[in-house]
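Why do we bother with a discrete structure alphabet at all? Because it lets us treat a fold like text: something you can write down, compare, and reason about line by line. To make this less abstract, here is a complete entry for YitT family protein. Read it the way you would read a sentence in a foreign language you are learning: slowly, and without expecting to understand everything at once.
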Amino acid sequence: MQTKAVNLVKRYLMLCMGLAVMAFGVAFSIKAGLGTSPISSLPYVLSRLIPFTVGTTTIMLHVTLILLQILLLRKRYELIQLMQLPVALVFGSLTDFAVWALDGVSAGSYLEQWLLCAVGILLVGIGVSMEVTANVVTLAGEGMVLAVCKVFPVKFGNAKIGFDVTLVVIASVLSLVFLHTLEGVREGTVAAAILVGMTARQVNKPMKRLADRLFA
């Protein structure tokens, strides 16, 4: 019993570390100025429209996604998934901290922008791998995709693509209508959509070996 409790604590610690790594990945993407990852595109655009930080708008999006999961699943909604709420609060707070910590970082050329973007993609991919390896609770974005798959006959991969595209389209429309320019969605967004998953899959193997030792 004690071993299970210790393992659970270790798993949540790994999740928190993964959230921190992802938060810095998001911050690097913002600093790159080439567009953020699909899941962060809408919070970023919202932070430009309303007087809230990108971390706060990230929390707002996650809370909305949690509510949508409840509406979709109703009696099938598992109460343990409410753990997505504190995870969202931690992730949003860490994102604001990461943006603050990188305040002095800037790109002086297009190449430097891509270097910062690459670092962001790498960190988000590593963070996603740590989240998956921790295997305790998903972020609200993944939770929403899983909820859709439970209600509708859609494969996870297709639902994930549809979810990402929806966020990017909403972010693009809001940006064009209210900012009169396209912000938060650029070539870096496309690169993140393709490479984050690939990075996470590559990191999963060594991360699993680490987990076998930590959670044995």
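What the structure line is telling us, in plain words: Residues 2-214 form one domain. DSSP finds eight helices and no strands in the chain.
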